[in-house]
């Protein structure tokens, strides 16, 4: 049976085989990334860290992600996406190795430094995977844009399902084998994945023939700039209550165990990833072009955290139901955004446009993480939900400045890129 499967894989088109390899690479990385986040939140809160202190452990993780996406897109264009993806895997292994030290050595500066490396690794890996999809989708297909949306949705949705599994894995491993044992197990898995990637992933994937200047990392496209600002607000709206406030609230106020908290967040992210894979069907329910689709789905999302803030959070059933509903609408918004950026990006230099966009994504996560720890510690979960609603509403307003037709804009963007390169 193994031989039959190998023969089938060899019979697939080269682009599909590379896409599967990139997706598998991305899956493995994301599994460890989600598990590590849950390990750090629960382990250090158990050690007596306040919610704000736990949030600060992720400060460098998110802050270095901002820089990495800018530099990573430029490196991908110069070195090739295969190399930046493998660099991300290698750095994650180093970050995990830093956390294998005895418990007494796990000081705040040390953990923040390890999280900084992990943040760099995560964004190198994600930028490489998302950019590679645009390179690999067959250009001769009459339905190339439909195929691009499907490929992006599958990659993004499946990745988030694995991230959810990582949340559950992190809570479970912390219960079964402790913090250090969990970190060692994840590092060994990534070493095997890195070896496979080095052997199989095509060299020079997505590398530009012309060496771009570093100043070109800042997008000149109005559509990409607007979409990036909307993305920043969108992801800040999720993390302001999801990263620190919700896990700590369930642990402190409702007495949930580590693996129960991890299990709920895992179910949320797994379901969120599943919805993302179906986003191409769901976004078609709203007609009116990119601008109206983006703004409408964002406005629908903004009402949910506002409604939750008005409900009694002591009733955990309301909170869980609202959490699941938020996940469905957030997944549709996120997947549609992910398609638009890959589509708006220049064919030559895709990693730089995608890198700039995910720089804004990382800034949103950084803002949301800090607001999550501070807002919950000072005002509680209800305040975090109100902040979330305001951020999504801001994202919807920004979307009104997008071009109505993404296809014509993408063609103009590619033509402008060709003229600039002459």
TrEMBL record:
The keyword Oxidoreductase is assigned to this record: no
InterPro entries per UniProt: MFS, MFS_ArsJ, MFS_trans_sf
Signal peptide: none
UniProt-listed SUPFAM superfamilies: MFS general substrate transporter
Domain of life: Bacteria
Name of a matching Pfam family: MFS_1
UniProt keyword Transmembrane helix present: yes
Assigned keywords, A-Z: Membrane, Transmembrane, Transmembrane helix
Residues passing through the membrane, by range: 20-42, 54-77, 89-112, 168-201, 222-250, 256-275, 295-314, 320-342, 354-374, 380-402
Gene3D superfamilies: MFS general substrate transporter like domains
Protein's name in the database: Organoarsenical effux MFS transporter ArsJ
Organism the protein comes from: Billgrantia bachuensis
């Amino acid at each position: 049976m193994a031989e039959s499967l190998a023969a089938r894989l060899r019979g697939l088109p080269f682009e599909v085989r590379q896409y599967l390899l990139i997706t598998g690479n991305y899956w493995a990385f994301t599994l460890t990334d989600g598990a590590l986040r849950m390990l750090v939140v629960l382990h250090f809160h158990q050690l007596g860290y306040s919610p704000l202190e736990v949030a600060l452990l992720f400060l460098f993780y998110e802050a270095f992600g901002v820089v990495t996406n800018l530099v990573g897109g430029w490196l991908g264009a110069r070195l090739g996406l295969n190399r930046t993806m493998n660099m991300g895997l290698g750095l994650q292994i180093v970050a995990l190795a830093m956390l294998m030290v005895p418990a007494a050595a796990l000081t705040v500066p040390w953990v923040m430094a390890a999280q900084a490396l992990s943040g760099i690794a995560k964004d190198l890996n994600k930028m490489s995977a998302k950019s590679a999809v645009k390179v690999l989708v067959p250009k001769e297909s009459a339905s190339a844009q439909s195929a691009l949306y499907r490929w992006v949705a599958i990659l993004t949705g499946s990745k988030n399902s694995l991230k959810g599994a990582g949340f559950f894995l992190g809570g479970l491993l912390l219960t079964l084998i402790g913090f250090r044992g969990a970190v060692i197990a994840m590092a060994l898995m990534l070493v095997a994945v890195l070896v496979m990637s080095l052997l199989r992933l095509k060299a020079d994937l997505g590398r530009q023939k012309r060496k771009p200047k570093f100043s070109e990392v800042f997008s000149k496209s109005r559509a990409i700039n607007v979409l990036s600002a909307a993305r920043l607000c969108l992801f800040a709206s999720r993390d302001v209550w999801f990263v620190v406030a919700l896990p700590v609230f369930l642990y402190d106020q409702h007495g949930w165990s580590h693996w129960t908290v991890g299990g709920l967040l895992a179910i949320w992210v797994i379901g969120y990833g599943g919805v993302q894979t179906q986003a191409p069907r769901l976004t078609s329910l709203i007609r009116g072009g990119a601008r109206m689709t983006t703004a409408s789905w964002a406005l629908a999302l903004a009402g949910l955290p506002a409604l939750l803030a008005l409900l009694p959070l002591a009733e955990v059933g309301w909170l869980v139901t609202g959490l699941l509903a938020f996940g469905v609408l957030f997944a549709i918004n996120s997947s549609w955004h992910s398609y638009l950026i890959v589509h708006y990006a220049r064919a030559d230099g895709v990693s730089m446009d995608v890198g700039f966009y995910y720089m804004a994504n990382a800034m949103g996560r950084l803002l949301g993480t800090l607001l999550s720890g501070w807002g919950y510690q000072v005002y509680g979960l209800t305040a975090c939900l109100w902040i979330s609603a305001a951020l999504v509403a801001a994202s919807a307003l920004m979307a009104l400045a997008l071009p109505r037709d993404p296809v014509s804009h993408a063609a103009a963007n590619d033509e402008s890129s060709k003229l600039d390169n002459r």
